[in-house]
Specification:
binds zinc ion; elongated; single chain; 2 helices
Length: 123
């Protein structure tokens, strides 16, 4: 099995709803996002996924979130903008935009809110 992972960063603000603690207050994060593709077969070049194509597909999604107030940004105007929900959102959106070869699929999205706190979504 092969895995290919790219990483991108963005900044955004949020406040958690129905939460009692520091995170209910308005604050921001410098998010770090890791996107991993997985598959058993390489293409004729020897690639699982072209890093450039994967980065482009992720960048489109990250650009929507970058420097946003997430609590006004659908679906996070309704869904809580937790790292877990955001990781799933990024997974679903990247999955729509990526053109992977046969047997290659999006494995997971990991989203760091801080250097020591990360949420992972993997279907
Ligand atoms: Zn937060």
């Amino acid at each position: 099995m092969f895995e290919v992972t790219i990483e991108q960063t963005f900044a955004a603000g949020h406040a958690l709803r129905n939460y009692h603690g520091k995170c209910e207050n308005v604050h921001g994060h410098n998010y770090r996002c890791q996107v991993t593709m997985e598959g058993e077969q390489l293409d004729h070049v020897g690639l699982l996924v072209d890093f450039v194509a994967l980065k482009k597909a992720v960048q489109v999604v990250i650009d929507r979130l970058d420097h946003q107030w997430l609590n006004d940004f659908p679906p996070f105007d309704v869904l809580n903008p937790s790292a877990e929900n955001m990781a799933k959102y990024i997974y679903d959106e990247v999955n729509k935009g990526i053109d992977a070869g046969p047997g290659v699929h999006l494995e997971s999205v990991r989203l760091w809110e801080t250097d020591t706190s990360v949420a992972t979504y993997r279907p």
